[in-house]
Amino acid sequence: MQDTIPEMMTAIAIEAPGGPDVLVPCEVPVPRPGPGEVLVKVAFAGVNRPDVLQRQGQYPAPPDASPLPGLEISGTVVSVGAGVGTLQDGARVCALVAGGGYAEYCIADAGQCLPVPDSLPLDQAAALPETLFTVWHNVFDRGWAIDGETMLVHGGTSGIGTMAIMLGKLFGMTVIVTCGSAAKCKRAREIGADHAINYKESDFVAEVARITDGKGVNLVLDMISGDYVPRNLKCLAEDGRHVTIAVLGGAKAHVNMAAVMSRRYVLTGSTLRPRPASFKRLLAREIATEVWPSVENGELRPVMDASFPLTRAADAHRRMEAGDHVGKIVLEV
Ligand SMILES: NC(=O)c1ccc[n+]([C@@H]2O[C@H](COP(=O)([O-])OP(=O)(O)OC[C@H]3O[C@@H](n4cnc5c(N)ncnc54)[C@H](OP(=O)(O)O)[C@@H]3O)[C@@H](O)[C@H]2O)c1
């Protein structure tokens, strides 16, 4: 297969920090896989809010990562680096990548690839890794969620939110979400949320108290931060866990540390992209064991919003920033 790989490829570059128009097609050399890596001919690339933040100059690529945007891909392995024993040319995979997904070819760490079963279309496969790795790690590893517990998720119809609903339900949790419209609340319930609160019409703290009979939730998965944090803490049951994955509403928060102490709260959070490949490989192994069987048997499928051609990446970002999407946006390469 090696001789069919071209020297150059089309990719989407970020010309300068700015609006969607700074995403421009460019011709760049096709990367070659190093030890432990594979080269994937990309079929689809997932679009994530962190790509928007990177484009705006607020979330720079780690020093050792491709400066091109794109954190998840699906496609076919076309070249295998030294020491890769698990994958061969022709394998259908999806992968979490540290960058470079908006391109015809992308390097992936072999340990961060997951096999795409025949029953899973490649557009859906590309929509899984970023949210799956993020939600799995934050809800179950950091948030210690177990079946029978209740979780509050903000941004219930986001890529992350829809995955949190589905994983929560898959593992026996009660899932409460907040969304910014009645239509989004309806969609969140259709996706599986037990309760959806329109935060523009009601106070989510009061609603959570009502839904849980005053007991509160065991875990909050929060992408808002700012003034949501003290309100989130009011939603937590004793021994509750507060997990921060983004600060869309502001990075600073006033926290009542007396409540953290007396109610034994745990405040934690994480960002996936800068973590070392060794950590992401471990996560991939955990997901392969714990979650992938549900992908293989069709129980877990991403919620798909829209697909755009690679060269229209700017339109994909416009759609995400308009905020009307439900679930995942992907680019077809
Ligand atoms: N920590 C990590 O490792 C990690 C990894 C991946 C993603 N993330 C973060 O997780 C968040 C969700 O990512 P995504 O790809 O799922 O994004 P997305 O689909 O664009 O979702 C963002 C959601 O946030 C809600 N929202 C509330 N306040 C907002 C505001 N001020 N600006 C924009 N949206 C706001 C919107 O829902 P309503 O319309 O209902 O308000 C929207 O559904 C992002 O902040 C992203 O950076 C973190």
TrEMBL record:
<dbReference type="Pfam" id="PF13602">
    <property type="entry name" value="ADH_zinc_N_2"/>
</dbReference>
<protein>
    <submittedName>
        <fullName>NAD(P)H-quinone oxidoreductase</fullName>
    </submittedName>
</protein>
<dbReference type="InterPro" id="IPR036291">
    <property type="entry name" value="NAD(P)-bd_dom_sf"/>
</dbReference>
<dbReference type="InterPro" id="IPR014189">
    <property type="entry name" value="Quinone_OxRdtase_PIG3"/>
</dbReference>
<keyword id="KW-0560">Oxidoreductase</keyword>
<dbReference type="Pfam" id="PF08240">
    <property type="entry name" value="ADH_N"/>
</dbReference>
<dbReference type="InterPro" id="IPR020843">
    <property type="entry name" value="ER"/>
</dbReference>
<keyword id="KW-0521">NADP</keyword>
<dbReference type="InterPro" id="IPR013154">
    <property type="entry name" value="ADH-like_N"/>
</dbReference>
<dbReference type="InterPro" id="IPR011032">
    <property type="entry name" value="GroES-like_sf"/>
</dbReference>
<feature type="domain" description="Enoyl reductase (ER)">
    <location>
        <begin position="18"/>
        <end position="331"/>
    </location>
</feature>
